Amino acid sequence: MNQAPANRADRFVAPAEREIWRILADVPDPEIPVLSVVELGIIRHVRLADDGRVTVGVSPTYTGCPATEVIARSIETRLEAEGYEHPKVESVLSPPWTSDWLTESGRAKLKEYGIAPPAHSVSHPKHLFREPKVACPRCSSMQTSKVSEFASTPCKALYRCASCLEPFEYFKCI
Amino acid sequence: MSASAATVLSASTDLRFRYAVHLGDTSLILAQRLGEWVGHAPALEEDLALANIALDLLGQARYLLSYAGEIEGKGRTEDDLAFLRDPSDFTNLALVEQPNVDFGHTIVRQFLIDAWQLELFECLQGSSEPRFAELAAKALKETRYHYRFSSGWMVRLGDGTEESHKRVQEGLDSLWKFTSEFFAPGAVDEEAAAAGLGPDPASLRAAWAANVEQVLTEATLKKPADVSYRWFGKRNQHSEHLSHLLAEMQFMQRTYPGVQW
After folding, report:
1. Do B63 and A93 touch (CB under 8 A)?
2. Which value does ipTM take for this structure?
3. Which of A63, A129, A154 sits opposite B60 (nearest CB)?
4. For residues A143 and A159, what is the distance between their CA atoms, to the nearest angstrom?
5. Do A96 and B137 touch (CB under 8 A)?
6. What pTM, to 2 d.p., does this model score?
7. Is a pLDDT exceeding 50 seen at residue B8?
8. Closest Cβ opposite residue A150 in set B49, B130, B141
9. A Pfam family name for this chain (chain B) (predicted)?
10. Model confidence over A34-75: pLDDT tens digits?
11. Least Cα separation, residue B230 to chain A (angstroms)
12. Residues of A with CB below 8 A from B148's CB?
């Protein structure tokens, strides 16, 4: 599965559910607010029952991600504000979320925000044991080096650019 | 318990509960130990790294202890299991309750357990219980990053200065004895293996040892001799350190029972 569920949504989703996807595309990730939860690739399914109840399946990026509960509340709050009564968010652990599900627009926004997007696909597990070549999000130089495997959140590593001398965060491939 | 088809299909509620608690306790207690570093690690980056690893482990613990409470069916939550059990009811591996000492010592503890979790989660993905398999697939990806961090530091410190080498070697010499428990029989993980819930603990040894030896060689560290040791956390036999850790971790719930955020 290399494609984010959101990318498939337009083609295969009923209009009523597509409307919900559109609303979710406006719900920001609390830790990287330039990204929506859809761009982050964590929305796994949207179901609209006959009685009008909405269920949204959300995958945590990391097992211990402290934003998971905030994300669930903000999705519920947003859907309620749009007139959906008692929306429900359910956690989906399998298959596990992967950085491959970040959308193209999500990657572009990360870079613009100053966070280097994941450098490659994780479809081959060997990638996790090899150091990726990471481009500086500010000056695009490849002369960068890793400072720490973990940064302000588990999903990012800390890098430094030898060309523009700026530190930056890198969104890890997982 | 024999590994007949019948037992594979019907691992008892009690066994699934105990196995989830055993794995959950190991993650929980290590998360608590790593959390003690917050604000104290030698550099800001390492402070963040240890806290982030602790967070992943806490996520595993929450998932496993919630599941345990669910299958037990007596209304106990993840919090009840974490904060209201006595030390003698915990079944975490004794290694993870060992105190932090210094950064080198902590890295050794982390490296030994990361290398073990890599093999554990790889195999646990094939569990007959989907809830264990799902967690393993998720946790394996995170553990690879933990392992990259801890094995990288093993090499930097081991093959570093005279002082860093000495400290890591001392950590290794004092912690090595606890690794015999990873693979020892006669506890809940062996029962779980017989029922198809998880891997046979002994089967993880070869890959773990090969991995560890390779890193120790690169780190110019000397592998200590294998010894069997009396502490056996997975059989509820703990070192005195667990009680101290729990006294701090459980303080709030013990002092103000039922307190909520």
Report:
1. yes
2. 0.79
3. A63
4. 10
5. yes
6. 0.88
7. no
8. B49
9. PaaA_PaaC
10. 999 999 999 999 999 988 899 999 999 888 887 888 999 999
11. 33
12. 128-129, 149
Residue B225 contacts by C-beta under 8 Å, 6 or more apart in sequence? none
Asked if the structure places residue A108 within a domain, the reply is no
Handedness of CA A136, A141, A145, A147 (dihedral sign): negative
Q: Which of B171, B42, B48, B25 is nearest to B99 (CA)?
A: B171
A65 and A122 part of one domain = no
- Given a contact cutoff of 8 angstroms between Cβ atoms, the answer to whether A140 and A146 are in contact is no
Cβ–Cβ gap B60/A64 under 8 Å:
yes
* A109 occurs within a structural domain: no
Distance CA B67, CA B134 (A): 12
Nearest by CB: B56 against A62, A96, A98:
A62
Residue of A nearest to B149 (CA): A149
Query: End of a domain among A73, A100, A127?
Result: A100
| A128 and A161 co-located in one domain | yes
**Chain B contacts to A (CB-CB under 8 A):** 45-46, 48-49, 52-60, 62-63, 130, 133-135, 137-139, 141-142, 144-145, 148-149, 152
Structural domains counted in chain A: 2
Give the separation between CA A71 and CA A73, rounded to whole angstroms: 5
- Can you state the angle between helices B103-124 and B130-158, rounded to 10 degrees? 150
Domains in chain B, CATH or no CATH each: 10-255 (1.20.1260.10)
Instruction: Say whether both A95 and A142 belong to one domain.
Output: no
CA B220/CA B169 separation, integer angstroms? 9
Beta-carbon separation of A150 and B149 below 8 A: yes
Residue range A124-145, pLDDT digits in tens: 655 556 677 899 999 999 999 9
- Domain-ending residue, one of A100, A128, A148: A100
Query: Looking up tokens 């006294």, which residue turns up?
Result: B247
The amino acid sitting at A29 is D
User: 10 Å Cβ neighbour count for A47?
Assistant: 13
Distances (CA, A) of A20 to A38, A53, A79, B117, B205: 11, 12, 8, 39, 49
In chain A, which residues have their Cβ closer than 8 Å to the Cβ of B55?
62, 64-66, 154
Instruction: Give the number of A-B residue pairs with CB atoms closer than 8 Å.
Output: 79
Range of the domain at A123: 115-171
Contact: B48, A149; criterion CB under 8 Å: no
Pick among B52, B127, B140 to test the A interface (most A CBs inside 10 A): B52
